[in-house]
């Protein structure tokens, strides 16, 4: 079977914001403790940061990491996590019924970020705390000194401000599970108050308003409309969340998940245009897709009041990785709508990396993020794809290929990301580039296998790993390659 992908460098949707390759770290299970922070472990540095985890995460080149939650943040007082570590209170964490020792807090997180060359994206508690507490955290982080909380930061060892530029106004506040859950109207009042105080202290910060928790919620889009109509002038982004699930164990259906992700982003593009229209505003507000992943196999979120419990340690297989690739394809294709996206999460909890005291395991979902973060640069091209469809269960006929593409004018490089959703059909693909010529030394990387459920394990850590593929350039300058079924193929070529 044959498919074609046509690219035109002038036909694009704008620049890809590298912040779509960001991550999320929550005080949950073993994400912080035993994940990034493991003092005393021979694999940790003098700050207690795991060096093996850091080395793996550096390969993902995440621009931002969101912290400290998630559901955790909605009953968290940031003050508990600053000051001398041995004087910090041990608290119950209601979100995950766990014990929070508070030995890792804002200062440790920012220190870890600076060491990792990552920017912090800080969430404030708008569930059980209020706008004043949020503003005081901005004061602690971003003001130079001479006031109570800025001085406290200096006394705690950080003479220079932390300079946190990106802030989330609470988390999933439309969810009945959320501490401080409220109506959209009530949240909008809180968020606006917090925004004005926070930006009053530091006008350079950018804010993310809580959108709805997902498309499955009754509040989907309507919550967002109410919040945006109130807070349009106060925020830069609205959040979207999605965790993809294959409860019916229907791989053909699951592998067409990108159809749904595209729908969500189109819904948001429509909503944002609508609110901008009724407000007669010149301003643009964008989507921060600040929680996304596959998550359905390990939903047990009860820590039984223990420290660093094993929670949400989802094992990721090949089909999960291909769904993650489709999230990334969709973010790239909607580069004019999505400016931030955070893989939830980064280590141990629904994560690309698992740790044990003496080692680390890379899971399948690590690789898509690594490929896109490395290669999706510059402009998001609008590929014209012609190819076969396949039967995707209750989703009906779905395109066999899910494609995004980028062109980086700085390096004259184009990259094409192709997911072949078919479980058994390899496809011959012809990529044409208008009248442009490509260097015949094309780079192709492939993530594929025969079993959608195959996964890495401590015993067999390399079952899912990238391999080199190949492509040729014909006399017309077209790129020719075969994209394997159940696979992601990443093609990078230099323009002459
Ligand atoms: O990422 C796990 C949880 O999923 C987060 O705490 C919450 O925001 C979402 O429901």
Characterization of this structure:
- The protein has helices spanning 51-60, 106-116, 131-142, 148-155, 184-201, 222-231, 251-254, 257-278, 318-333, 366-375, and strands at residues 2-6, 12-15, 22-24, 64-67, 91-93, 98-100, 119-124, 166-169, 206-209, 237-244, 286-294, 306-307, 338-344, 353-356, 359-362, 379-381, 384-386, 389-391, 397-399, 401-408, 413-420, 427-432, 443-448, 467-468, 472-473, 479-483, 487-494.
- It is an alpha/beta fold and 496 residues long.
- The protein folds into two domains: 2-9 and 380-494, Golgi alpha-mannosidase II (Immunoglobulin-like, Sandwich), CATH 2.60.40.1180; 17-375, TIM Barrel (Alpha-Beta Barrel), CATH 3.20.20.
- The strands form six sheets. It has an eight-stranded parallel barrel with strand order 3-4-7-8-9-10-11-13, surrounded by six helices. The protein has a seven-stranded antiparallel β-sheet with strand order 2-16-20-21-27-23-24, covered by helices on one side.
- Helix 3 (131-142) runs parallel beside helix 5, helix 5 packs parallel to helix 6 and helix 9 (318-333) packs parallel to helix 10.
- Residues 26, 69-71, 171-172, 291, 344-345 line the site of alpha-L-arabinofuranose.
